[in-house]
Amino acid sequence: MCEQSGNWALQLRRLTDGASLVRIVETRSADECLETIRRFPTSWVAVELAAGNCEAALDLLLALDAQFPHVRSVVLAARSMTGYRWLARELGAVGFIASPWQVPTLVEMMSRNAAVVHEQQVIAQDQALNIADEIWESLPWQSSRVGRL
Question: What global pTM score does this model have?
Answer without folding.
Answer: 0.75
